[in-house]
Amino acid sequence: MENFFFIVIRSGRGQKETGLEPIGKHWRHFMRIKGILFDKDGTLIDFFSLWLYAARRVIPEFIRGNNLEEKQNTTELENVLYESIGIFSDQIDPNGALAYKSYREIAQDMERALERLGIRIETDQIETQIRELFDQATHGEEAKMIPLGDLPELFQFLKKKNLYLGIATADTVSSAKKCMKQLGVLEYLDYIGGDDGKKRPKPYPDMLYDFAEKSGILPQQVMVAGDTRNDMVFAEQAKATSVGVLSGVSKERDLASYADYIVPSVEQIPALLDSLEGAK
């Protein structure tokens, strides 16, 4: 039985073809892939069970911690802050702050939202508070960190193919390491890049260049797997191969104009790699 998955291929006219097609058809020719840089949330772990859950605890705690309920109706304030980070009811905006931005950028969005209500809190203060609150919420006893597939088996397979593996996330490096250790895959990773206050966040290609340099490979030999448009632009900045996954916040339509390939989840990456190798 043939393996099938969604693909997006750049044509010579710069357009995109999308569809459900069998492996091995009409591949764009790339340099041999020697490393894979994964986004974390929505790509390796379920975004909604962890980050939507966390946000529903962080925002009320942030309001209480700054005594903002004394200045504004609490429900209205919660809604304004949820919308500022890209939460509308229980829907996540794939291009909203929570989906892909660093804590610094999220804090800036929250600061602007509060200013429109006549409330002034400095970005630095907001960032410090939400970093701590999100860390507590995402690593607490009630947090659900659900892997999107059998990650140890996947990473073992990829390492046997002599691939360098890394993480590029908007989360902090320490949080990402905790997460990967909990999922049992930390030992397979050659690189973890995140919000360290030094490298610029995605879509700037700083982490991709850093991963490639430390692995001794070219940026063009890197495959980036992620669930947002931001991840695809991140790959494009360094001329890397972009693979959009539909396991996170984005639909196929959100990624179709940006990704080289689209697959249901990271579990299809081995088949994609085999097809790319077969097309050489």
From TrEMBL:
Transmembrane segments: none annotated. Keywords: Hydrolase. One of its GO terms (cellular component) is cytosol. It comes from the Bacteria. One of its GO terms (biological process) is DNA repair. GO terms for molecular function: phosphoglycolate phosphatase activity. PANTHER family: PHOSPHOGLYCOLATE PHOSPHATASE. This is HAD family hydrolase. The lineage of its organism: Bacteria, Bacillati, Bacillota, Clostridia, Lachnospirales.
